[in-house]
Amino acid sequence: MNVRGRVTLPIEQGMDDQLPQILDRLGADAVRNSDGTWLPEITSQLGVKVYETYFPARGNQEFALAHLDARPRFYLMSDRVTAPAEGPLAIDIMNGYYKMQVEPDQGDLQRWWEVIDRTTGEVVPVEGWSVSGEGADVTVTIAAPVAFHVYTVSFLAWQVWDSTQMYNYTTNNWENDPTRVREIGYDARHPDAWEFMTSSMRKWCEERPEVDVVRFTTFFYHFTLVFNDLGKEKYVDWFGYSASVSPLAMEAFEAEYGYKLRAEDFIDEGYYNNSFRVPSKVFSDWMDFQSRFVSSRVKELVDIVHSFGKEALMFLGDTWMGTEPYGKYWPEIGMDGVVGSVGSAATCRMISDIPGIRYSEGRFLPYFFPDVFKPGGDPLGEANESWLQARRAIARKPLERIGYGGYLSLAVQFPEFMARIEQIADEFRSIHEVGEGHLPQSSTIRVGLLNAWGAQRSWQTHMVAHALWYKQIYSYLGVLESLAGLPFDLQFISFDDVRDGKLDDLDVVLNVGAAGTAFSGGEQWLDNDLITALRGFAANGGGVIGIGEPSAVQHQGAYFQLSDVLGVDKELGFSQSTDRYPVERPEHFITADLPGALDVGEGAGDIFATGDATQILRLQNRSVELAANQQGEGRGVYIAGLPYSHENARVLHRAIFWAAGREADFDAQWVPSNVGVEVSVFPEAGKAFVMNNLTEAAATTLRGRATGLDGDGAITELQLDLEPMESRWIDLQG
Question: Which residues form the catalytic set?
């Protein structure tokens, strides 16, 4: 294939002789710099689109040092400290924090700080505590604590060192480079900072006529990222708003909403309102308040960029609080595109599904950083892993562009890696060219994923720090990872959407997560209107799939409030006196491609069938891991957990068809017999894109209709032998 384009490559100074050949080889039609690199003078002669990184809220150390009162802040909580039998209690509030990143803000501390008795939840009156010390060495002393009660201090703190620049600084060993400084950020709410941001934006655009795309490394407020006293991550929440606070913002909030904010509204008992928490009204108000502010100011910057004939591109990471791309204010900004790091199929869909932009771009792994591109590193292996994860999502909802980041001078030292990304670029372009620019066909089964966030956090559930692995979430994140490459148009719906009648637009609903979290729902399930809506949905023919601890809250003798629909409940120890005689019946449509055990990851544990009508499909240690249940005209499916694997993706694929009552249609869907192979059908082009997701050769049978997925043509059967990781286009009409 001689098609070129759709690829952005990082370039840097000192490679002028190599750049034209590398760009030609990879078919790259755009170049960019990275954090810590600069575009070479030859850039304007390369004949490609030019991106340049821009940091609205950091990068000018002279301004930052002259306006230290404009630094961003966040709320932090001290250690939990137990009071002694008698006498005062002294708490070193900076214990465990990195003093080069964090410094307590001792402004109006009696207004903005809070000392809480965590044993009772009561706030200690301000006259009951005092503060001593300065800079990063601060102690709060509680004069008369209650003996053996636990206390914490919630304090407002300056961000002394920008979190992302700190990460890049330490990762790339910049401490020995005299040209590198520890950058300080500035807050867009500060009047001087905002005037500086807008004037700097205009000046920057004027001085760079060669730049076509301003690649905003997001905007004003960093996600919550705090380091410990060893300079390692202490707390990270990619969705956190704790770093968006300031007295200016909180006073403006009070003037608009009519009530005061307190430290605990952000500290949230030390959970910092992370996305696993069911959002409180106060936190929802704060998110909306900050999103309106950020979006309005980002629009001003985007308008400046457009006035110079340039495009505005947002990096989905780092400082993105307030510009959530599935939020209701996003369309008002006018952003041309979004680029984000692709760490999995789910994160790829998170980027490619963003509405209201002209193009989406995925930044593939590995970054060209010395932590991978070094003797003993495996950049080729990481590139293959990244592509296999992303490809199945791209084949469902293609990104418009792909690219890489980091130091090209490192990557070219690994010729096998360069050869592989050349192949990846060609394979990516084929999806657009052979697919003729159309989206692949999806099943007509309408699928919704139900949680507290709904559409606002589309493709972002069960994540802590992007796509990284965490013990208690991989069993749930695997559901999103599976769905990212399956042929369904997934809708993310909230509990309020259900109350508003959204179930009428769906055939199957999934509720996935651990009890009490925003994703399972917690006390939302005590609402009669919600629970009867789901039961009525199932009784009238809808499908409900619960994974982990769905609808879980103890109430009236049941833990799963949809136990009647799902056919299972969880034993909490209250009903051990009830005898149960589980019988496994493993043969079922759902398990047809699962000859052995089901991997449920951490699993939910102690799940029992509620009656003989429940079909127990997998049982382990007398705990149900997979079950199917008929409920009225509808069906329920329960799965104890679903880490991503080829086998588990197939189980979910079949479970959705069975829950929808459409299992008779499954064989006409071009579903490969080998679960390690997947297919995307492009009916307008009359072709299908077949992907071997395995790193070994695979043989498979394909059965489907020549007209696509849901047509009435004759069923055709094909036999294919695929090389490791191979993709192949097949003609559905031939």
Answer: 318
